[in-house]
Design a protein that fits this description.
The complex is a heterodimer of chains A (217) and B (405). Chain A is an alpha+beta fold and 217 residues long. Chain A folds into two domains: 112 residues, no CATH class; 85 residues, no CATH class. A two-stranded antiparallel sheet of chain A has the order 1-2. Chain A is elongated, with a radius of gyration of 19 Å. The model of chain A has no long low-confidence stretch (mean pLDDT 89). Chain B has two domains: 198 residues, 3-Layer(aba) Sandwich (Rossmann fold), CATH 3.40.50; 181 residues, Rossmann fold (3-Layer(aba) Sandwich). Chain B has 16 helices and 13 strands. A six-stranded parallel β-sheet of chain B has the order 2-1-3-4-5-6, with helices on one face. The chains are: A alpha+beta (217), B alpha/beta (405). Strand 2 of chain A pairs parallel with strand 13 of chain B, so a sheet runs across the interface.
């Protein structure tokens, strides 16, 4: 390894869920709240399902889409909101704008606004993230692969999802480190992954395989 | 006593390491839990398990129980019902009595650095804050989605004096000037109520109660309380029974702070009499193995509550990979993703419909149970609960959206 390149330190994160006390009974109210809640709330509702249900489905919808589809029963809008390709966004602010554009456009053409059943309102939440260092570091691809298999899925989540959008680094931590290491192709391959289409364990396995292939060279 | 390291095979060593890491940042702080009953009900149950584990992690956690007379607990039961949205007339005299008991207790308690008050009974202890300072958290364990306005207006004055309020479900949050945090309760996978049991134990419990395991058994485990709707359960059973040869088990106990238990129990007994396939079991407090066996040996588990703080019995049944049919109230939708990890219903008829469906589709029912167990493993075990509490305590001193420890 280039002696100027810092070792990769695996961090992990723990989230505290904050209740904002704001709720929406229909899509119109959802839009109004969506415009004013903190960015951490938008991030929370587009990523929570992925972390909590990661064993269930490789394509978890965001909370907005889930509620619009399954509670308000608006399948058309639900599909549009679930189809937002989160991996394309560099900031939560841009992501929020995309959701509000879609819902706004839909509401302009919609005839009536339907309230959800009582007790099934959309409740806005946010999170406070506590970042912890793990004992695992890597100075080479071999060590990286070994330790990536040891850390929790929360650590993987932190470096792949939080780093890019929540912490506003614009890129996942793994690719950034591979770049510093001079492993440009590997960095590109990991950047090109759409992590939202994997369960966390599958994502871990995929990255391990990619690292393995490059470590052989 | 369970050792914290025993959770490693279930929750993962990384999870245990994280708990120690967080606990290190709470050295020197006394965390004092205060509630109103040492036994019975979910709050006492979770504190009994959690306090020793927090202490093993190096956290100076303590637990005090306020003292109250019969009148006080009758008033707090009224509060409990009113906060669940059931109309209850609470007189000014009763409010005075409620405050007087809180104030008497406040004089006797030695408050810690972080005062963690559970439920409404001891809520007014926070009056002491002005004189003492300290960090105060109010933990609401009950369904708070539609509280009676008068009761809420009275309590709100006290809630606002805390640094943070903690709720079990998003629907319970209100517009408050203090931070509100979601902490779902949890179950302990190593407790007698949830640990693995040999098949012989399950069989012997069923035999002891005279329940036939060769026919489908539908069970609801909960306190005998109107809000758990045991009569509604019997009605749902009767609809399903027209087509399916099922048995119904209603099993539960009481809590020392619930004077209504025996009355509800009597009504259930009257409703169930003459049907030899309904088993009404009033279990004493030390019946955890029996409850565990009843849940494990049942074909389906119900939780047809009208209101629910969280509904720990749902998590208990899901952890045992049981297909669960439960009302979409309180914290239950957090535990069940409808048709993925269980079934959510809204009525007696809906509950009956799904009883029939799941009795006749055991493969689908099994899938629900398997998904349910995984969901509980990731989100509702005691290790996650301890972690949330540690984060809650730390958040009193760290307010940024991202905190680097």
């Amino acid at each position: 390894m280039d002696s100027n390149v810092e070792a990769f330190r695996f961090n992990t994160k723990l989230d505290q869920t904050i209740l904002l006390g704001r709720k929406a009974r229909n899509v119109d109210e959802l839009l109004e709240c969506l415009k004013i809640v903190p960015e951490s709330s938008v991030y929370f509702h587009t990523h929570r399902f992925l972390q909590q249900h990661h064993y269930l489905s490789p394509e978890p919808p965001n909370d907005f889409a889930y509620w619009i589809t399954n509670v308000v029963n608006d399948v058309e809008l639900g599909e549009q909101v679930s189809s937002v390709d989160i991996v394309q966004f560099q900031s939560v602010s841009d992501l929020r704008d995309r959701f509000t554009e879609i819902i706004d456009a839909y509401l302009r053409s919609a005839g009536t606004i339907v309230d959800c059943p009582r007790g099934e309102e959309f409740h806005f939440m946010a999170s406070r993230t506590f970042v912890l260092a793990t004992p695992y570091t890597a100075c080479s691809l071999g060590e990286f692969k070994e330790n990536l298999q040891r850390v929790s899925t929360a650590s993987l989540y932190y470096h792949m999802f939080d780093a890019k959008l929540r912490l506003g680094k614009g890129e996942n931590d793994f690719s950034r480190w591979f770049e510093h290491l001079g492993e440009h192709t590997l960095a590109e391959e990991v950047t090109r992954l759409d992590p939202y289409t994997y369960t966390l364990e599958s994502l871990r396995n995929k990255i391990v395989r990619l690292v393995e292939e490059h470590d052989k060279h | 006593m369970t050792n914290i390291e025993e959770y490693s095979p279930i929750a993962g060593q990384a999870t245990i390491d994280e708990l120690f890491h967080l606990s290190n940042h709470l050295q020197g702080k006394v965390i004092q839990n205060i509630n109103s009953t040492p036994v019975g009900g979910g709050v006492a149950e979770i504190l009994t398990r959690m306090i020793p584990l927090l202490r093993q992690l190096g956290v100076d956690a303590r637990w005090d129980v306020i003292k109250g007379n019969e009148r006080f607990f009758a008033i707090t039961k009224k509060f409990h019902n009113a906060l669940h949205g059931i109309p209850a007339e609470i007189t000014d005299d009763e409010l005075d009595c409620f405050l007087a008991v809180n104030r008497e207790n406040a004089e006797e308690i030695a408050f810690g650095d972080i005062v963690f008050v559970h439920d409404p009974q001891p809520i007014a202890l926070v009056e002491k804050r002005k004189a003492l300072g300290k960090n105060w958290i109010w933990r609401c364990h009950i369904d708070f989605s539609r509280p009676d306005k008068k009761a809420w207006r009275f309590l709100e004055k006290y809630v606002k004096l805390y640094d943070a309020a903690v709720f079990s479900a998003p629907a319970f949050a209100r517009r408050l000037p203090i931070e509100q945090v979601l902490v779902s309760p949890s179950i302990d996978p190593l407790s007698d109520k949830n640990k693995e049991l040999p098949e012989e134990t399950i069989n012997s419990v069923f035999e002891g109660f005279g329940i036939d395991r060769s026919r489908p058994v539908v069970t609801q485990v909960s306190r005998f309380d109107y809000l758990k709707d045991p009569i509604g359960v019997i009605k749902a059973y009767r609809i399903a029974k027209k087509h399916e040869d099922i048995q119904l088990v209603l099993a539960g106990g009481g809590a020392t702070d619930d004077p209504e238990g025996p009355i509800v129990m009597e009504q259930v007994r009257n409703e169930a009499e003459k049907d030899k396939d309904i088993f009404v079991l009033f279990l004493p407090p030390a019946s955890d193995i029996e409850i565990n066996a009843l849940q494990r040996g049942s074909t389906l588990v119900l939780q047809k509550s009208l209101r629910e703080g969280f509904g720990l019995t749902v998590a208990e049944a899901l952890w045992k990979s049981k297909p669960v049919i439960a009302s979409a109230v309180g914290g239950i939708p957090l535990q069940i993703a409808h048709k993925y990890s269980g079934i959510l219903t809204h009525s007696i008829e809906g509950t009956a419909y799904w009883i029939k469906q799941l009795v006749n589709e055991p493969a689908y029912a099994r899938t629900l149970g398997i998904n349910g167990r995984e969901h509980i493993r990731h989100n509702f075990l005691i290790t996650r609960h301890i972690r949330d509490y540690l984060l809650l305590f730390l958040s009193l001193f760290h307010k940024d959206p991202v905190v680097y420890m």
